[in-house]
Amino acid sequence: MSGTDSAATTQVYRVYIKASPEQVWDAITKPEWTDRYGYGGLTDYDFTPGAAYRTLPGPAMVEGSKEMGFPVPETVVDGEVVEADPPRKLVLTWRMAMDPRLAAEGFTRLTYELAEKNGSTRLTVTHELAGAPQLAALVSGAHDDEQMGGGGGWSWVLSDLKSLLETGKTLAQ
Asked: Which of 48, 49, 144, 165 is deepest in the core (most CB within 10 A)?
């Protein structure tokens, strides 16, 4: 897994997953998968360019927020589909809606690119973060060691996805 530092306005992460591009695509785009890894949340897409999407908090996120003593909003992430070419490419506008400070930074651009490589899938995530320095720090994993700092960002999310698809278990299981 590779990534860039939190000061970068474009962050690129790449991971190789022992699964087909279709399996990885489903894990990225279907709510029965999106709630099982990373920070969770139920995301479903209409792949029509310009279609809105939202990530709703899943049960584990709601329960965790109660334990931590902070509310979870109705929408965690939102944006629009820019381009979809299943199972090869998904381009979105992306906004972290659950934190008002991050939401105020506006929409960023997120691209998933999937390619079959020797029986595995190379997944590249490119997050364009110009004008969103707080979000850039969060998704870079800069707050990984803080108790409520948002964890390890994209590196952690993608590691959790890889673990789930390859072993059936997340990093926390």
From this structure: 165
**pLDDT, position 37:** 92
- Run of H or E including 62: helix 59-68
| 3-state SS track over 124-170 | EEEEECCCCHHHHHHHHCCCCCCCCCCCCHHHHHHHHHHHHHHHCCC
| 135 vs 142: CA distance, rounded Å | 10
pLDDT along the chain (173 residues), means of 10: 59 98 98 91 94 89 68 90 98 94 96 97 98 93 61 89 96 82
**Tokens at 113, concatenated:** 């690119």
Tokens 């695509």 sit on residue: 25
pLDDT, position 171 = 87
**Terminal C-alpha separation, the chain:** 21
Report DSSP state, residue 22.
Answer: H
Residue 6 DSSP one-character state: T
Give the closest residue to 164 by CA, choosing from 30, 6, 13. Answer: 30
